[in-house]
């Protein structure tokens, strides 16, 4: 499979529309002199992109006849509509009910997954503490490993939007993370304090504890230092960061929940069952801590050497199955940093509305690769493969593969302290 030509059949419908529009734009730009493209933009002509934007907007509008809620991550409406009896008597009644429960009517899938977790993860964990078997323990961990990506990005929506269910279900909306978060490897409330109150405030800048700028992003030793710092020190560094910023309340809360979670795990290990604690809580915790940093490294590996403060130039966009079908459009990371409160279903249409700005700002858009594999390819210094995955926009159109590879290589360079002072 050549990533430069392949369009994954498992892409979401919106991703297919966005990708084809970007590829069409690149093809037109490649065959037209720059002044022609400029005149077209200045005239603000209505074209295919406007039709795609209109279609995507309608899909997200509950008042539109073409509105489509997301019910599952694996199947789209067109898939389960092939079974009329199932669709009419089971799925449609469920969707109607679920739309009255979730905060945003597109998000039926989040209720679907809450039901899944409380039907599988929770009873499995309880059973392990009641009657432990190693086979069950390992299978439970594998199940949680499969769930954790989708769950984490559901919680990503939860912490940014203050919940995912309607206000009448607020009690459960606020309660369930205290049950399910530790099962997936999250310590209580740490994701909120680190991601919302810290990372999005600092934006991968010098004071961001998960910033990549002081690391050589294609170097294995630097990567291990980056992961190790978060793995072993975040419990201390995050409260200290809040203290330095004068946010004492956040500092005490972040420390309380993080250390409180560790204390609970110690008590379970020491006095209840160390084997169940290992499989239910500790293995997911250690796995997620590594996974979060592997993902964040990929999200912020390419930082512009000229304007690293720009959200367009310090984060990237991915059009791929793993990030967008299974993880609530997590691939649209630039769009998310531009507006952290933007709903996940709005990212594709937002990109198309701003595609000229993305091009003018030299933003990076990739396809057929996820954040984990971006990290892997970087550590292998495989810039040729990464160049093949780039969807060219703006000045990138017409660049050779070698030129793109060299451009990407420049954006992974470590910033010296002198660079940091000059650029930030």
TrEMBL record:
The chain crosses the membrane at residues 108-132, 138-156, 223-242. InterPro entries: FA_desaturase_dom. It comes from the Eukaryota. Keywords: Membrane, Transmembrane, Transmembrane helix. It holds the Pfam family FA_desaturase. Residues 25-48 are annotated as: Disordered. GO terms for biological process: lipid metabolic process. Signal peptide: none annotated. PANTHER family: FATTY ACID DESATURASE DOMAIN-CONTAINING PROTEIN-RELATED, ORF. This is Phosphoinositide 3-kinase regulatory subunit 4.
